[in-house]
Amino acid sequence: MKRTKKIIGAVGFAIAFLFSSLIPSEVVRAEELPYDTYNYNYRENVVITPAAYVPAGSVTGQDVGTSGFNEPQDFCKAADGKIYIADTKNNRIVVLNRDMTETVRVIDSFCRNGEEDGFKMPQGVCISENNQLYVADTENKRIVVLTPEGEFVKQIDNPQSEILEDGFEFVPLKVTVDYADRVYCIAKNAFEGILVFEENGSFTGYYGTIEVKISLWEKFWKRLASKEERSKQQLYIPTEFTGIDIDSDGFVYASNIDSDGLQGVRRLNPRGEDVIQKGENKNLGGDLQFGVYGTYGGASEFVDVVYRGKGMYSLLDRKRGRIFTYDKEGNLLYIFGGLGSQKGTFTTPIAIETIGDQIIVLDANQGAILKFNATQYGSLINEAVGLRYDGDEEQAIEKWQEVLRLDENNELANTGIGKAYLTAGDNKTAMHYLKLGMNRKYYSIAFRRYRNEILSKNMSTIMTLLIVLIVAAGAYRKFFRDKVREKLGKKPIQPSKKGGLT
């Protein structure tokens, strides 16, 4: 497998930790944190970085004036800042104020068609742009739609379609809604993709199916194997999605678990096609180096995704408790987080959200929301990426230069400055920074433009020189032929009176 040669990942982390003393004093030092802060360079080696985010406390049910959360599985943020938690094993939805300091309400029952109803192991929750609460009521096999106050609106259940397998059982796990009130649902054992429902609850089909690629060897072996042997082989079925979010343009971000560690997230357009950009190393799988064996061996396993605006999104890895943040072009911005028993680490991270620049993570086993605040280093990267996304290259350069002051070997910052100069038309300077950033793609673009720029500026000189060379070559050729004829005793070639040569 491609990644077996990268078993040295754990060693890289240790080496990075030893060199953490090189981090400037004005940023948080690695030894002060309960987890590693690192990134990968162009050669896919681990490099230590300043901390982009640091722990900022946690919130439990008792902290906000209610009973403890019992294995919560999802949460979301409403437009007004309130936090809605799917408190799964307590069969309720808990609503917190925007500061997460107190409980606004607890929704554990509602009136439906004149009768009292309730949840059974709800695992997903979201708030639509129309301010309606959607709950994936998992064990009741339905999606319940309520007002923010808990009044029943409608429910979505028992989808009917010819494309569904016989005996298909609808067990919703995660849910989200777009600007047109279309409902996207990740359901148990729905390997064909995300289920999509119209506003009226009608099922319209699957969305964003992940194609399974079977190698030639696997196809060959399948032909030779007996029926019994084939039955024991791994089923070649598409990967299930694990988390889902939608940006303001209606593009769906969906996380999935990829055993090869190559792509753990998709950006799906309205037709369900993956249009995500993958950056220089073509990898959106989290850690590039990892061990193969042991509890923490294997590729990153993303369980949730949150779109953060300005093209940025963050992914939550349950394998090693890391949070990976990428920009629109698929560049890995920073990594932080870890598993453990210390404050600021996770035991069972299950969902991720943002409140402004703050990142919050729901831990099912701890029954708590863990908060992380951006450091100066993290804020500068966020701002620089946002400014470039908005087209403000001049301001972006200033932010990236500040990043380099804190982390002088940051390839991303050098690339960011190079891209900004490239956009501004300063191709020579762009080449300098893109070379430092080890960005071959954009360096080639800058080099080609700089070459064309040189040619364009000197075209008149080049053409004049070319004409002089052509005339000189013609004169020399005539002179040479005349000399040859003189040596042979012939007269030099002269123009005839009729216009020809004699």
Description:
There is one protein chain. Helices cover 25% and strands 28% of the residues. The protein has 502 residues and is an alpha+beta fold. It has two domains: 4-374, TolB, C-terminal domain (Neuraminidase, 6 Propeller); 395-457, Serine Threonine Protein Phosphatase 5, Tetratricopeptide repeat, CATH 1.25.40. Strand 4 and strand 5 form a beta hairpin.
Could you outline the blueprint of secondary structure elements for this entry?
Blueprint: H1 9-18, E1 38-40, E2 46-48, E3 53-60, E4 74-77, E5 83-87, E6 92-96, E7 103-107, E8 109-112, E9 115-118, E10 124-127, E11 133-137, E12 142-146, E13 152-157, E14 172-177, E15 183-187, E16 194-197, E17 203-207, H2 216-224, H3 227-232, E18 241-246, E19 252-256, E20 265-268, E21 302-309, E22 312-317, E23 323-326, E24 332-336, E25 349-355, E26 358-363, E27 368-374, H4 376-390, H5 393-406, H6 411-424, H7 427-436, H8 440-457, H9 459-487
Antiparallel strand pairs: 1-2, 3-27, 4-5, 5-6, 6-7, 8-9, 10-11, 11-12, 12-13, 14-15, 15-16, 16-17, 18-19, 19-20, 21-22, 22-23, 23-24, 25-26, 26-27
Helix pairs in contact: 4-5, 5-6, 6-7, 7-8
